């Protein structure tokens, strides 16, 4: 398992549950994977492609799963495949679908896959003029990888122009050297993720993320403050349209352009009030924190599914889902998503949560048996329940005993689904 966040803890936990897995090596992992049964951390950076290759060969690793986008963009899958090692994830060429927003927007336009109208800029003045002419609300995006922080949904032209000056003015380094400016899309978002192998694929359970840092979707965007599955906005009709209008044409086009996609393909969709999906973003990996609630619900063997995909056909091992809903609440460190404080001791992690809740670690480290904070998103506390409301109650109950100085989290994860449930 390559990576060390919450998504990777959940993946390692689920892979370790396969009867065919003897041990999961996690590089670099976190305090959660350090203590997970049948998991072992290896101190190696997720981007160290040469080191990872050497590790996999030296340890006789039978199957590798890549969690984050960094090593994918660095070509870890190409390197492993060239060395005849089995690995699940897209090639560097296929992972471009996430690494460059300008590439993705041009790709979507070329293949007539629905997405917001846009323009790409490298110079400040024409970008300012475009925004002045187009009006607000409008969305400004840094082209490159920015850990979920390169997007400003501007309510006013002035706010949009400030974002343009910050990004094209060099404030984000290379990631902001090009910006995409696109129309604001109204609707409700869903994370629609499939396991793909070329043009064959199986969808995972639907999910919805909460990107803003504060309750009621206030404050800046983050990588995600909580998520739940299933997402009721993905009705059977929306599901059919997402497959036919987004997933299938995207996989066909990637294959036709010579970059067939094997891996988790994540479509961030905006579902308009009439049910039509538009692509907000693609990721070449699972979502974090969507993975944690999605995998809480997975009732079949994850290794079987990923191996079938690497062998060319994930439909040969389709996933089965628990009927319950799952919901995860991210607990974040003091200062996050800005300048974060690290090394705060975390208390209350020892509670027995049974089968109805699970704490996935993200930015944690272990020192002398004490778990410390080491990143912005520290934990994702997940609950399982008969519906999203019950899963929400289970998650917040599990979270209530966990503490560290400056910890913060949203108290309203799942509110859209819960209000739908309460209305019926
Ligand atoms: P992205 O990194 O492109 O997924 O953008 C991060 C977040 O910004 C998305 O999850 C949306 O909440 C919001 N966003 C991005 N693009 C748009 C858009 N065109 N219209 C409305 N909201 C958007
Ligand atoms: N939670 C959104 C993402 O992983 O990109």
Number of domain modules: 4
Average residue-wise pLDDT: 95
Q: Give the C-level CATH assignment of the largest domain.
A: Alpha Beta
- Which percent range fits the helix content? 25-40%
Strand order of the largest sheet: 12-15-18-22-19
Q: Tally the helices: what do you get?
A: 14
Query: Which ligands are bound?
Result: adenosine monophosphate, glycine
- Give the overall shape, derived from the CA principal axes: globular
Overall strand count: 22
Q: Main sheet, how many strands, which sense, barrel? A: 5 strands, antiparallel
Which architecture name of the largest domain does CATH use? 2-Layer Sandwich
The name CATH uses for the topology of the largest domain is: D-amino Acid Aminotransferase, Chain A, domain 1
Helix-and-strand structural type: alpha+beta
Strand content: 25-35%
State the end-to-end distance.
42 Å
Instruction: Kindly report the oligomeric state of this protein.
Output: single chain
Radius of gyration in whole Å, from Cα? Answer: 21 Å
The CATH superfamily of the largest domain bears the name: ATP-grasp fold, B domain
Q: Runs with pLDDT <50, length 5+?
A: none
From the structure above, extract its key features.
424 residues; alpha+beta; Rossmann fold; Dna Ligase, domain 1; D-amino Acid Aminotransferase, Chain A, domain 1; 4 domains; 5-stranded antiparallel β-sheet; 22 strands; binds adenosine monophosphate; binds glycine
